[in-house]
Amino acid sequence: MSPPPDPTLDLDGLDRAALRRSRGEKWTTYPEDVLPVWVADMDYPVADPIRRTLQAAVDRPDLGYPIHPAPTDIPELLATRMQECFGWRIEPRRVELITDVVQGMYVALQQFCREGEGVVVQTPIYPPFLSSVRTMKRRLVENPLALGGEGYSVDLEGLRAAADADTRMLLLCNPHNPSGRAFRRDELEGILAVAEERDLVVVSDEIHADLVFPGRRHVPFASLCPEAEARTVTLTSASKAFNIAGLRCAVAIFGSDALRQGFLGVPRHLRGGLGILGIEATRAAWREGGAWLERVLAHLEANRDFLADFVARELPGVVHHPPEATYLAWLDCRSLGLEPSPYRFFLDRARVATSDGAAFGEPGRGFARINFATARPILAEALERIAKSLRDPRP
Ligand SMILES: Cc1ncc(COP(=O)(O)O)c(C=O)c1O
Q1: pLDDT tens digit sequence for 293-337
Q2: pLDDT of residue 289
Q3: 219, exposed or middle or buried, with CB in 10 Å at 0-12, 13-18, 19+?
Q4: 66 DSSP assignment
Q5: What is the phi/psi pair of residue 240, to 5°?
Q6: Distance between Cα 198 and ligand 1 center (Å)
Q7: What is the mean pLDDT of residues 61-85?
Q8: Which residues partner with 369 through β-bridges?
Q9: Both 258 and 167 in a single domain?
Q10: What is the pLDDT, as a whole number, of residue 1?
Q11: How confident is the model at residue 52 (pLDDT cuts 50, 70, 90)?
Q12: Do 251 and 198 have their domain in common?
């Protein structure tokens, strides 16, 4: 059972001056007068069990080489967590530690797909899905999500048509960034049917799995059935939900020994090494971070609802479907004709740094993404500035 929530965790009282002094890219990329609501880092303080673990490692000091292959209990911890959170049984021996999720995508592209072969991605999508396929010289096969009055859904007919005989892989993002969709079981089963027809390896990025709001449940793709598991590499980490992306520690879960062997064909030193702090912070997050996460999720849900309400009242013409998961809001600004892009417009006129929708693929053009994992006063100010820039668009 998780301990009671920490009443001292004041998520709305964040110190803006302290945030400005942080060295991560979120607060350092833009000038001081710009409010950053772009990259997917949360502004919240790290969970106390993680802070204590890191502090103890520095005090001891315990900053030497981690033993490799790391005899950590992370595979077992992860197995317990997957069972408890999602009712998914995984084999600890099929878990490998990697430095980050995007690295796992590159290794999978290298090992399970040849140059020129097709890789399906569902656009608009987190930009590394696009750049990894292009950088590795695989063929990008786009299967845009369908956008209707209720929001985004999987276009299964489009997927079937897009995945030709030369397509080897599907890079799935579930929950999906930037749409915030947590795909339903029947949608995932539809995807599986196509993956089986075309014999695709599925690489499922589930890094946002812990950030699903009430009313939805995360369904791991590999948990659908043994056939799904056997063709899937699941990539995840504690970094998004526990806000420790700078520590570089993630996991790959293989649905078969053959997938594991194939992935490990890339020499360890090419895959890079993990730091001891990332490993220890991940252990602390998964063992003791439950209460913090509960509290943060409640705050995120309230911020999500506040943002949705604000957009409906104060940003006429902007279309927004509240996310089912993630702390990312995806604003459809196409009807406003903001030039040269909503991103540039909001940066120049509102001094708010959003993420540029165009970076998420062609269907993202005319959209802006807002990260709402911050104190309410900061979020409110960013939204007010945007509203003002639209009311009075003179430079
Ligand atoms: C869907 C998704 N995958 C991967 C990442 C990055 O993960 P990592 O830092 O482990 O590469 C992010 C970061 O925002 C993300 O949203």
Answers
A1: 999 999 999 999 999 999 999 999 999 999 999 999 999 999 999
A2: 97
A3: buried
A4: P
A5: -80, -50
A6: 27
A7: 87
A8: 330, 355
A9: yes
A10: 46
A11: very high
A12: yes
Q: Indicate which residue's Cα is closest to atom 13 of ligand 1.
A: 40
Strands 355-356 and 367-371: antiparallel
- The CA-atom distances, in angstroms, between 322 and each of 75, 109, 135, 151, 163 are 34, 32, 33, 9, 30
| 219 and 340 belong to one structural domain | no
Q: How far apart are CA 240 and CA 205, in angstroms?
A: 12
What is the amino acid identity at position 9? L
Question: What is the 86 CA–ligand 1 centroid distance (Å)?
Answer: 20
Closest CA to 213 of 241, 244, 234, 252: 241
Structure tokens at 205: 């990025």
Residue 5's pLDDT band, with cuts at 50, 70 and 90, is: low
Atom of ligand 1 nearest to the CA of 245: 9
66 falls within a domain: no
DSSP notation for 135-187: HTTPEEEE-PPEEETTEEE--HHHHHHH--TTEEEEEEESS-TTT-----HHH
- Give yes or no for residue 115 having a pLDDT over 50: yes
pLDDT band at 172 (very low <50, low <70, confident <90, very high): very high
Q: What is the pLDDT, as a whole number, of residue 8?
A: 61
- Last residue in a domain, options 288, 312, 329: 288
Shared domain for 198 and 263, answered yes or no, is yes
Question: Residue 353: which domain range?
Answer: 16-46+290-390
Q: Is the overall model pTM greater than 0.70, yes or no?
A: yes
Residue that finishes a domain, picked among 288, 303, 327: 288
Atom index in ligand 1 nearest the CA of residue 100 equals 10
Instruction: Judge contact between 73 and 312, C-beta under 8 A.
Output: no
Residues 305, 282: one domain? no
* Pocket (CB within 6 angstroms of ligand 1): 40, 100-102, 126, 173, 177, 205, 207, 237, 239, 245, 250
